[in-house]
Amino acid sequence: THKMKIVKRYVGVLVKVGEEVLLCKRNSKGSLPGEWSIPAGSIEEGESPADAARREFKEETDHLISGKLQLIGFVNRHSRDGSEYRGLMYVFLLESDTKINPDLENAKDGEEHTECGYFTIENLPIEDKNDQLYKLIQHLLSGN
Question: pLDDT for 73-83, tens place per residue?
């Protein structure tokens, strides 16, 4: 009998302010070092994806999400060279009128990122244009 591989489930929060989205750069020590992505993390036992998204966002940005989160898609996560499947990420959209600026100093897991910023589709720091997260953001910002 072959053992079924447990697929890890992750959540990420995509903050959209006007025509820009929030991305954070991962530190050199963790998974996907130096890569720009959205604040994200694992779903814990018994947690709903939306609850996990709120918790992870608070832990990484020190910002409590009060508004509604909308599930806008799923992204398969792989190791940087694409050889290893890491799991499935639920991507939640948080639309805001004002920029939410992560407080990496005070956030519980703020050290997971070295910097954060807002980017338009033209200057997204994701090099791989076939990356599923890139495509999701592109779709969201271009409105088609």
Answer: 999 988 777 78
